């Protein structure tokens, strides 16, 4: 046993300990592996980890040797990272949470995995997700239901809920999720974490099992804004194999960490989207917490502006989002690019295996009937463009730096119930960047001794991630509300 309490350690803290010779990478990795062993399939049985990297300790030893020769090898030297299991790794299976892909080992790492490894990160484990990232409760045929470490009767959000639960439970230092509709920010909200959905095109999707390349992006799920900024530094940038990233080179700062600023809220004008708040009894806990956060923002010098535009998140998903239209065509393209010997080469093949979780069958069948060639698809793309322009007009007319709203109008769903009333679709459909960070907790209960985490979300113009980091770092400094789950000592 390592005997090291690594809970809540940041990248900066770990590197400080490396540099002062108080810690080795092997000791750090061993401590995280012990936590996974103790709490994922034992104890509370969070069920968040699909597979552990069998070479993690070997990679840690190699990094320790490199450190002895020349110090830190990169900005993520020795940082154990949890990777959503729809991101390709050449040394581990990439299942997308589905038994139909259980033995599929890609020929190459995803572009962002290569960047992580080059920066010195260790892919410690691959995390559960809602199968094929197709919904929001983190249930898969390959692992089943992941539980929320703050309330074991609730889901951890989704679809990147395995990453969210794992980072909240301190199974790794930082995590990677993907987001098509809500899927980075939903687990962040549900697990008292920071979840950053970048502008579509800032981070490569090459080597990620697609849901909708129109809306897909990968991004950080972390315990602090500083760690999210450090991770984004590594992830962001042009990938020739993903044409959507070509424009990103124009917008990359020297470092996103340069925008971490305790005074970053002073003088900001931020619009409150009042129609993204609920009005019923089940919304009271979220509303109370978000309004307390808004009061803090006012005290920190923010000018809050009431925005009366009506956005209906359910309508946006049902009538404008193109995720189900894209799914079959984009997934088939990914499957065709895999090495030979695979069991499936199309969504039709996947359905025919009968190996998917019953909970996604309806969506899979619907996706089989849809296509990017449908007239309705083209109409939705036009509505998407109109929505993008509408948001830009709102922010320009009111001279806003950002928009703010609760990520989810009500508390995260109980296990077995559907995820409802999530507002993250606004950023997902438009492709605009957004960040969710901890706003607080609901009132404690027997099932949730600290309360259930509640997340606040900020949305900004395309490529304005520095503004998000500026706002979020200042609010985090003023309101350090994150607490690790109890019972995971």
From TrEMBL:
Residues 27-466 form the Amidase domain. InterPro entries: Amidase_dom, AS_sf. Gene3D superfamilies: Amidase signature (AS) domain. It holds the Pfam family Amidase. It comes from the Bacteria. This is Amidase. Signal peptide: none annotated. The lineage of its organism: Bacteria, Bacillati, Bacillota, Negativicutes, Acetonemataceae.
